[in-house]
């Protein structure tokens, strides 16, 4: 740091005075040419200097154009040294009492540049920024910087909010739990090891250790350390500080520091070394890693950094007057100084400090922040989740959600083995071939987030009853994610009474769309009901006409007709899986049911079809069957009735029939055929086009919808209880469906209010 007399208001620029013709063809020359030819009204060149033979310095008097009451105490005219180090400009205010501001940083104490700080014009790496710079650009940016300091709005598009410390060359990656131990001053010191992350020594991973775990802590490749936190307060308006190079720097590294950091360090070491236990000799051999936390009172922010020593605790104790070296043959290599001795300035300056930034391990909370979410989102989607199906869409969706910070506990359920054809779209790779999907996927996810608790269950849930283990997981989790793409699985889930709320995601057969079905919080509309409503959406919406058309399939083994897989490009599967993961992240925190169909258009664009069905459902048991009518279907039938009042109307009912579980879901009611006749007191359904309408609905839903019965309306004021005519029709319907071995369904629609819908079957 340059010296300055107390009587002088400016730092003196050292080095040799040079003339303009001694400058090379770089930015320094460009700056001189601009100021001399065009910028005289803004800046005047006072002198040129060359420091250490290679750093050119242009000293300017700058007109700052600040207001009469600037936010920071900047004067209307300031003297600046523009130093060019490898052609990169450093702007150094030369006024001794120049204010500390955001986007300025302290010069290292050993710097050859004049002054105590520089101002930051551009946060970009110089390799990226230098193409934009000329002498004129330097002047423009300096003027802009003063203008922002004048108003206090120093941050701009190219300058992120300021930090306290300049980045270090190394970063320590540490779990939040381990870092929390550092931060608690009431707890004993932390023992840990630092290990290189991969081949580079730029990142060091911190692992918790015990003092008794190693007999030679100095023998570790990176080192075994004892650590704690030093917290200090400083008055500072935002200037960033360089990290100290040796222990002696601690005394004067902070501008406005209120405490002697070296004394604080010595006091904490004294507490640690008072331990008289059997591990004391081993403790002497550990190196020191302390977390240095500064509370910046000027900006009410806190930032940590780590400082590590290459010297051992014993050597540091000697330098700080706490210990003395004992003669050989004595029990301990060091003894306590009583009373505590003086700090040896020469020794502490010889103890080199290695600085490192803190980076939290990639855990749930950190991942959530990176993804732009918060803890409220994380809690809303559920912390304990059961994942059914570890196939293509499941593996991609769950990997994305885990990267975004979702979940604390995950139970993966699948009985399949990872096969060669799975490489087409799955996140797993070649080394997983022949192994359990659940085991391989769990390893993959743990490699992303070590904090994630993962359990696996090798089981297939379809038409069979889940095992006791799986039933317990389904009952105790926060959410169930169904990625099986299996109607049997989703219907089995719906039949389980003791379980958590479920959400299902799957591709359509052609791989052009992804569907997300979410139950409401009370599970009134379960997956089986949502499936029926999903089919109705397909039939009602013309844009979804070919949504469920069969896709191309490829045989994957032995020429067997059942051993097939859909032919979907990995790029499309990735896009759809990303959309599904995004949709899951949005809707899972909502209590509402939802149906989402996202499609990729022929031109590569995407379209979204969303529906939030009304919560409500009627159901009854008949002849061992469960008949269900969702409120959304009832509302549509009410609208059809209103469109024909005062006459009665009616039509065919289509639904989903599940013989295995003896359940019928009413999906939709067709409008009255054109040859129907209705009056205020009667209705007779026609037959024109009914066969074609049923066939079209079946075709559009891959034959999942079928004829289940009839619906009709009653006139205004009439009850919805079945009339004698209705009862007779039910008998006829029963006779017609005898071959189907299921009961007929009749829905009667009346006035809104009490019992507007009557769901009837023949019993």
In short:
This protein has 763 residues and is of the alpha+beta class. Helix content is 26%, strand content 28%. The protein contains 19 helices and 35 strands.
CATH structural class of the largest domain: Alpha Beta
CATH T-level topology of the largest domain = Rossmann fold
Tally of domains: 4
Please describe the biggest sheet, giving its number of strands, its sense, and whether it closes into a barrel.
Answer: 8 strands, mixed
In CATH, the homologous superfamily of the largest domain goes by the name NAD(P)-binding Rossmann-like Domain
Radius of gyration: 38 Å
| CATH architecture classification of the largest domain | 3-Layer(aba) Sandwich
With helices defined by DSSP (H or I, 4 residues minimum), what is the helix count?
19
Helix content: 25-40%
Strand fraction: 25-35%
Number of beta strands = 35
Strand order of the largest sheet: 19-18-17-20-21-22-25-26
Distance between the termini: 98 Å
Mean pLDDT: 87
Poorly predicted runs of 5 or more residues: 1-5
Structural class: alpha+beta
* Mass-distribution shape: elongated
